[in-house]
Write a structure and sequence with these properties.
The protein has 319 residues and is α+β, with helices and mostly antiparallel strands. It is built from eight helices and 15 strands. It is 24% helix and 23% strand.
């Protein structure tokens, strides 16, 4: 059971192991692009290419879907980047239902663990497989793998690394279940009074606006934690109060320092560099995207966009 690219390597590795994949459950097709053509999920595309039965229920409690699922007589359900399952589904297979989660549980429970680990400046994260229970991301842990986060790694880089290492952990987990060699760890046993649990809630568009009043290290982590998707953004504001929305994909921490300039101040030669002031220093913009334009490096951007030190960056009164 899965939908995005992240889930495809796990399906692929099981099929090649080889295990008998008797069915694939994924999200319904959605209209996409200017023509609003129906688009298959990456998991569905892979399943069809490999002649696997595909199920796309809109309602996971639908009696017809439950009947179809039951008729497959699967021994085990495996969930990678899918929806929350009702009990009637996850309790169905005789060996249970396990999930691959992109954090070291119990830390970063929720929909966006990869993003939040980087946003919070973590140096280490990881992958966890666990048996699903009544609550979200709380079931007994089957296996874990730690992954170091490089200081210049963004959410996309970490996603791709986890996508492939996660497939290996899924295969390892299936084999452990098959061989009855499990050493399950209740998550409650890993939580003590001195441990602060960090959540990983879903990130919405309004959460992605940059606050330049924060420290430069925090803004740096915020930008790379949202790159390339959903992507952080800011408003570039001219002296005449003309506003341009810009997505920011990549920045470097600048050695430039000017105590007199307020957060959101801009420093540029309008040729090769564009810097924006945070609370305690500047960030050097490297890759950005002006609204309705393509993603480009800062030199390309400045060749087609006139901006000066009189401009500023920051929030405006309306979103």
């Amino acid at each position: 059971m899965g939908t995005p690219d992240f889930a495809v390597p796990s399906l692929d590795i099981l099929l090649r192991a080889p295990y008998s994949v008797v069915g694939v459950v994924t999200s319904p097709d959605k209209p996409s692009g200017r023509g609003q053509k129906m688009k298959y999920s990456p998991v569905k595309e892979y399943a069809l290419e490999n002649n696997l039965p595909v199920y796309q229920p809109r309602n996971l409690k639908d009696p017809d879907f439950i009947s179809q699922l039951s008729s497959l007589k699967a021994d085990l359900f495996i969930v990678v980047a899918f929806r929350m399952l009702p009990a009637v589904v996850w309790q169905m297979p005789r060996l249970g239902t396990f999930n691959l989660h992109a954090s070291l549980l119990p830390q970063y429970r929720g929909a966006a663990p990869i993003n939040w680990a980087i946003i919070n400046g973590e140096k280490v994260t990881g992958l966890t497989t666990f048996f699903i229970d009544e609550k979200i991301d709380t079931g007994k842990i089957i296996s874990k793998e730690k992954i170091e986060i490089d200081q210049n790694e963004n959410a996309g880089d970490l996603h791709d690394q986890m996508m492939h290492k996660g497939a290996l952990l899924v295969l390892q987990t299936v084999r452990a279940i098959e061989n009855d060699s499990l050493n399950l760890v209740p998550q409650d046993s890993l939580i003590d009074q001195n441990l602060s649990l960090k959540p990983a809630p879903k990130i919405f568009k309004e959460d992605c606006e940059i606050n330049w009043n924060r420290r430069k290290d925090d803004v740096f982590n915020f930008i790379r934690g949202l790159s390339p998707y959903p992507c952080s953004f800011t408003h570039l504001i001219s002296p005449e109060q003309n506003v341009n929305i810009v997505k920011i994909y990549k920045v470097d921490i600048s050695k430039d320092h000017n105590e007199k300039e307020p957060p959101g101040s801009i420093k540029t030669d309008n040729k090769s560099f564009l810097k924006i002031r945070c609370e305690d220093g500047y960030l050097d913009l490297k890759e950005i995207q002006l609204q309705s334009k393509k993603r480009m490096n800062i030199e390309e951007f400045l060749r087609g966009f006139q901006i000066s030190n009189a401009w500023s960056a920051g929030k405006i009164s309306t979103f």
